[in-house]
Write a structure and sequence with these properties.
- The chain is α+β, with helices and mostly antiparallel strands.
- It has a single domain, classed as Uncharacterised protein PF07273 family, DUF1439 (Bactericidal permeability-increasing protein, domain 1).
- Helix content is 32%, strand content 43%.
- The strands form two sheets. Strands 2, 3, 4, 5, 6, 7 and 8 form a seven-stranded antiparallel beta sheet that branches.
Amino acid sequence: MKRRQWLTTLAVALLLGSTVAQAQPSYTVTTAQLQQAVAKKFPMRYPVGGLLELTLQPPELRLLPEQNRLGTQMVVDAGGPALSRSTTGNFDVDFALRYEPSDQSIRAHKLKVNRLSLSGMPPGPAALLQAYGPALAEQSLLEVVLHKLEPKDLMLADSLGVEPGTITVTARGLVIGFVAKKAM
């Protein structure tokens, strides 16, 4: 009887050990942490051909877990010599995320412009903005640092020989999975 109990205990321990060994450690960045980190980088100003200047206001982040992406909507203020008056509009994009080990940051990646609209803009500048706006957005917002991991956040990971790898968008924020460090 004791032998059977011992074998059952051993089997359970091996099963649990196997499950624990396969479990990946992770780090969670909440929506509030992301929103706070991103807001610090705005407003952002971009000149467009010396004719317009676009100012992007702090974005409102949206989690898109079904697509494993983040979305954002920003208010855009436009002014400059091509406009008789300043105008305001909306800018909507979504993007994937990637980890950059050189500065331990999470960055926007694979940006997609969904909508760029400015109300009351004359036809000439509006056409210029529609033609160049998406490309400008993709160039200027690509690789924007959304969050930086602190050394204390990675201390345990470093000691275990792992580093951030996968980034998964969930309904509560980002879950950063860890993978074995690449040999340098």
